[in-house]
UniProtKB/TrEMBL annotation:
GO terms for cellular component: endomembrane system. This is Uncharacterized protein. The lineage of its organism: Eukaryota, Viridiplantae, Streptophyta, Embryophyta, Tracheophyta. It comes from Cephalotus follicularis (Albany pitcher plant).
């Protein structure tokens, strides 16, 4: 920076001296018959004649054509001005250059001076270049679960965009504005979109907290029944602030709480007139081992499941589908615990910029166990933590693959340069619905109206279809 200013000062002095030389030459040189000398002479003579006219009191000319006199006066001033500018343009260009450079420099460097987090998108850009942003999506691999026949979802990215446009105004009317510890915008949209698309006959949620997800399900399907399973009834939260209690919902909550795995689903479904369990949508946001939940759902004959927190390998408080399917044979899956590897170097760097990114130290537990969370299978908000061998972990993925018809991870709704999210690491996520740089589209969809904090909860929500057994 210092050398830049030295250079600027050098150029300024150089041009100043040069200009002095030029005017010296112009004034005193008799060898240069044209350009600067002529222009200066013309300027001087013009000034002289103007005074001369008034001095001479040539009233006939001046009074006779006043407008002409004035016009001539301005044109002369202009010529004069231009002639002076011609001498100083290198200085003007230099000044302009300095002003532009200073503004640009202050924009980036002042953030560093005021200790803005490096997770701030602008700072990230300053530190990482474009690597910190959109170009990173999927850079470290995006593991996924193979389904039996490789089936994909019916909806397209166009459907998702249309859905976003419709959902933003709905989301703006949510009763719980600050849903800390619950779903943010990305997953609220994902749940609403999936429920609306599938049009189930009944919806079950496990883990309601204050009721935000119940409200989202209700927006998607206004008339169908909901069953909500949660230890603390959402109405309890009403005493302290906003909460949502649905009028067409059966609550297994409070003294009526029964864990999903212990409910007699046959009789409960019959009670609600549901004969076909395949037409029920289940939403899990209860932070339980997902393998356990899938086995329970399978036993009860349910087919459509959504998991809110599909944590990435090395993170989270329960064994997730991402954990299970992160395997060497999956594109983007499997890890090595070598400290001297590209993955270790990239992870180390990314950890400084994304809160949820984990470096190789955090990823790998004793014996270089990278699967699950440092070789552990977590359950029940991390209250249970069981070490598993790689062989067991591998078997779990084979079991899941043998029963899966479909696996679909919700992409982030928009890139971090638009949402300003700072948590999930794009290098472990699929390409967002609204890609970085598409500011116009982001605004058109109404996403720009939302507070940036609502975009900070993305954890790869997943929708799976279990095949009929
Ligand atoms: C992250 S919160 C759910 C947030 C909610 N879905 C939302 O979007 O606002 C997790 C909830 O799961 C509940 N929970 C804990 N154990 C549970 C269990 N075994 N079955 C169902 N819910 C459980 C907790 O009490 C808590 O309300």
């Amino acid at each position: 920076m210092l050398s830049f200013y030295k250079l600027a000062v050098f150029f300024f002095v150089f041009y100043h001296n040069k200009k002095k030389d030029m005017s010296n030459n112009t004034t005193w040189s008799s060898h240069s018959p044209k350009t600067p000398t002529k222009m200066l002479e013309r300027a001087l003579s013009v000034r002289r004649s103007a005074f001369a006219d008034s001095d001479a009191g040539d009233s006939e000319t001046s009074a006779g054509d006043e407008s002409k006199t004035k016009r001539q006066h301005f044109s002369l001033l202009f010529t004069n001005y231009v002639s002076r500018l011609t001498h100083s343009w290198p200085c003007l260009v230099l000044c302009l250059f300095i002003v532009v450079s200073l503004t640009a420099s202050l924009t980036f460097h002042s953030r560093g001076l005021v200790c803005v987090s490096p997770r701030d998108p602008v700072s990230r850009l300053g530190f990482l270049g474009s690597d910190g942003l959109e170009s990173d999506f999927g850079y470290l691999g995006v593991p996924w679960c193979r389904s039996k026949h490789g089936k994909t979802v019916e909806w397209t990215s166009k459907d998702l965009l249309k859905g976003l446009e419709e959902f933003v105004p709905i989301y703006e009317t949510r009763p719980i504005k600050n849903n800390m510890y619950g779903m943010g915008f990305d997953h609220s949209f994902g749940l609403w979109f999936i429920a609306r698309w599938l049009k189930p006959d009944l919806m079950i949620e496990s883990g309601a907290f204050k009721g935000h997800s119940t409200w989202v399900l209700r927006q998607a399907m206004p008339d169908i029944h909901i069953i909500s399973i949660t230890p603390r009834h959402p109405e309890k939260y009403l005493k302290k602030g906003p909460a949502y209690v649905d009028g067409n919902c059966t609550y297994f909550a409070g003294k009526d709480f029964v864990d999903f795995g212990s409910i007699e689903w046959g009789s409960v479904m019959k009670k609600h007139g549901i004969n076909d369990h395949r037409r029920v949508l289940i939403f899990f946001d209860d932070h339980q081992n997902e393998l356990k939940r899938i086995r329970q759902a399978l036993k009860a004959g349910f087919r459509h499941l959504v998991f809110e927190d599909n944590y990435d390998t090395g993170t989270g408080d329960h064994y997730s589908l991402r954990h299970i399917c992160d395997q060497f044979y999956i594109r983007g899956g499997g890890h090595s615990c070598f400290r001297d590897s590209d993955e270790a170097r990239v992870r180390e760097k990314r950890k400084h910029f994304w809160e949820k990114a984990v470096d190789i130290e955090e990823l790998c537990g004793p014996g270089e166990a990278w699967w699950g969370v440092r070789g552990q299978m977590r359950d029940n908000f991390n209250h249970s933590n069981t070490p598993i061998s790689y062989a067991e972990h591998f078997q779990n993925s084979r079991l899941i693959e043998s029963i899966l018809d479909l696996y679909w991870e919700l992409p982030p709704v928009a890139g971090p340069s638009l949402t300003h999210q700072t948590r999930y690491d794009p290098s472990r996520a699929p390409t967002p619905i609204v890609e970085d740089g598409r500011y116009g589209l982001f605004q058109r969809l109404g996403l720009g109206r939302l507070e940036s904090s609502v975009f900070n909860g993305y954890t790869q929500m997943v929708y799976i279809q279990i095949s009929e057994q």
